[in-house]
Design a protein that fits this description.
The protein is an alpha/beta fold. Helices cover 43% and strands 18% of the residues.
Length: 404
Amino acid sequence: MLSDQSAATVRATLPVVAAAIGDITERFYDRLFTAHPELLKDLFNRGNQAAGTQRQALAGSIAAFAAHLVEHPDERPDVMLGRIAHKHASLGVAPGQYETVHRHLFAAIVEVLGDAITPEVAAAWDEVYWLMANALIAIEARLYAEQGVTAGEDTWRAWQVVGRVEETEDVATFRLRPVDGAPAPDFRAGQYVSVQVRLEDGARQIRQYSLSEGPGSEVRRISVKRVRGAAGAPEGEVSNHLHARVHEGDVLRVSPPYGDLVLDDTDADVPLLLASAGIGVTPMIAMLEQLAGSGHRAPVTVVHADRSPAEHALRADHEAYTGKLPDGAAHFFYERPDAGHPAELTGRVDLAALPTAIAAGTRAYLCGPLPFMRAVRAQLIGHGVAAADVHYEVFGPDLWLAQG
């Protein structure tokens, strides 16, 4: 891992670099997009760039990786690296792009920190960068090999929309089949695909959407929530494009499946808790379908939070698959319950309000807004669930992971 000399230098300079990392990443992206405008147009999420969340995630992940190296010199933060690598693979990131990032990132570091970047400091942080970059390149190479694709060359495949269903006012489900007639790639329940669309200004923007149906069919299903602009945040470019312009018969460019929020091979005899909020329901539906199909016999507690029953996408699937489990129970929390669902729980998720206690040895899977997942994780740990048994997926830049 990190050499002793570099470890000492990184440990001494980490507070200074961490304090300036926000400015560094801002300068980095400005330099990168000036030199390579096509990356903002066709690779990076313009919405996340405008909101600043991608910059926060990059800054946090670099600082967290460096801190891990100096605090745990004999360990590699594989959870962090794996999460990032899956996202990169879904975008078709190629090894050569790490050199481009390195060039502009280190130029930004020198711009921000100036004379503080001595040759010794530069060499130490260069070592940190390439340890992280080479680890990601290796993991991504394995992911590409598993899918039979080459980085940056054949990420995208044409899929035709063979069905569209309006689940709620803001959620539409698209059923997709490969145009070439070849078999669809296998996937694991909980994984996502990237969808690339051409927008009116010519940009090819990419977004990730969880597969909202379990494995076993040649048709793939994604359920897309329209992101409406609010409180100064822009509308979702791709989600609004899909809702307004994509219908049965249209063709989308779709990546192979990626993502590390998947059921563990040892889950068969383990009590499970699947907790979601809003559109975070999508990977949970795929997991539930797989569990129901495999005859999972251990307890499965399903928890979902939404604004109202009318806004709860895929509710029928939520109930149906839970009902097929020998020991499954679903509990829905709504901010605004209605008369048609009087038995539902009101307000934010409160695990103490469930009729049965969380079973010992429970393994939990979470998906939804970050504040929701933080709150549920804290409650689970309070109920005796081991921190290592709480797994999650963030839709968008993973600020939680970046914060360590």
